Amino acid sequence: MSIEDLYDDPARERLVAEPPKRVDAPVRLAFERDRARVVHAAASRRLAAKTQVVGPQTDDFVRNRLTHSLEVAQVARDLARALGTHPDIAETAALAHDLGHPPFGHNGERVLAGLSVDCGGFEGNAQTLRLLTRLESKTFDAEGRSAGLNLTRATLDACTKYPWTRAEATGPHGVHADGTPRVVVKFGVYDDDLPVFGWLREGVPGRRRCVEAQVMDLADDVAYSVHDVEDGIVAGRLDLTRLDRDALWETVRSWYLPGADDAVLDGALADLRAVQSWPVAPYDGSRRSLAAIKNLSSDLIGRFCGSVQGATFAATGGEDLVRHRADLVVPAATEVEIAVLKAIASLYVMQADDRVSLMQRQRELVAELVEALWSRGEDALDAVFAGDWREASDDAARRRVVIDQVASLTDASAVARHQSLTR
User: Fold this and answer.
1) Do residues 101 and 356 touch, judged by C-beta distance below 8 A?
2) Residue pair 321/258 in contact by the 8 Å Cβ criterion
């Protein structure tokens, strides 16, 4: 049986039925079309100018949201293929997973969440679903409402990292990958997007995530835990041959694993250092040093994905890893090793004084921009959002339009729009 045969007609269904493609058009399967639609989406292009950890304009080497998403997609596709789940679905979910991020990443998300309490809140993953099913322009239903990219049910489900509403969310804890504290509750759908959410989750009990979403989430975790360290090394902010053990373990416990004891963390670091490509000399900027870092990244990604693959196969006993039939298994040792890598980047990159002061100014800018757009209304919005403003039935709906507008901006366009409205 092929991988395609494991996905039934409801998995391939789209919210709005589409006519057959021209007979002379290239033959592509439903999930291949989903991937193409995300790749060509305007929201995907904007990721190139949105912050991952540091601003995309600060260095030619540093990762932005787009390059990060491409790397997550590669990890997700390879892992999905190895597990026997659909690589196109997992890859599309990975390509889409950060589409809802506002300018300045989680730092901007924090501000928008606080300014949208009365219109349903803000959360990057819920905004991703809104983009895919409403804000991106591709398909309209019979009543003239936008259906966004009109992706299949299986793909939209895979893009749903937190399949619950804000009212059902638990309190925030820990920190994000970019070092900002989690002050925003995690949820995957706004109340006014519940109809499409109900459709994509049809027949799924409770909060259970499909396995393709789990692959996407793990790929994200693996990619940023490895690549943030890589970026920090090249930026000259950290040296893997000289780590402050006590400060590192304090960071692990305060940010990621509150109950981890020294012996477990010492063992995890020893195992990481035993990886053949772990550096034994400081990075010096040479081509050989760059190659060594790339080899380390490759080895660590392979190590983490290999451990999950083995543990999952051992636990599932041959069960097809399709949609809601099974779950990934991440070994405890792998979780600790990933947390140690995150803590290394957090300690030496995220907590730098220059970055902390910049983030404060970014939050002020986003807040001022929201209020400037709100006070000026329709005339200050892009044409697509001005149309949404005119159709809004009350102040809460209009506030949501302003939030959508700001969330759509890149770092640079947010700065430019702020300057034009507040000077």
Assistant:
1) no
2) no
The tens place of each residue's pLDDT in the chain, 423 residues long, gives: 689 889 999 999 999 999 877 656 666 799 999 999 999 999 999 998 876 555 445 555 567 889 999 999 999 999 999 999 999 999 999 999 999 999 998 889 999 999 999 999 999 999 999 999 999 999 999 999 999 999 999 999 999 999 999 999 987 666 655 555 666 799 999 999 999 999 999 999 889 999 999 999 999 999 989 998 998 898 888 999 999 999 999 999 998 999 999 999 999 999 999 999 999 999 999 999 999 999 999 999 999 999 999 999 999 987 889 999 999 999 999 999 999 999 999 898 876 666 677 888 999 999 999 999 999 999 999 999 999 999 999 999 999 999 999 999 999 999 999 999 987
Of 371, 189, 341, which is closest to residue 278 (Cα–Cα)?
341
Residue 17 phi/psi, 5-degree rounding, is -60, 140
Is the pTM higher than 0.85?
A: yes
Dihedral angle of Cα 190, 194, 200, 204, to the nearest 10 degrees: 100
The structural domains of the chain, with segments of one domain joined by +, span 211-355
Decide: 94 and 73 in contact? Cβ < 8 Å: yes
SS3 call for 32: helix
Can you list the alpha helix ranges (DSSP code H) found in 317-410? Answer: 332-345, 353-376, 383-391, 395-408
Cα–Cα dist 308/317, whole Å: 14
Q: How far is CA 175 from its chain centroid?
A: 14
DSSP one-letter string for 221-253: HHHHHHHHHHHHHHTTS--TTS--HHHHHHHII
Contact 83/321 with Cβ under 8 angstroms?
Answer: yes
Residue 47: alpha-carbon gap to chain centroid:
11
- Among positive and negative, which fits the CA dihedral 209, 211, 216, 219? positive
- Nearest to residue 30, comparing CAs of 136, 149, 118? 149
SS3 14: strand
DSSP letter (8 states) at residue 178: T
Angle CA 71–73–76, to nearest 5: 110
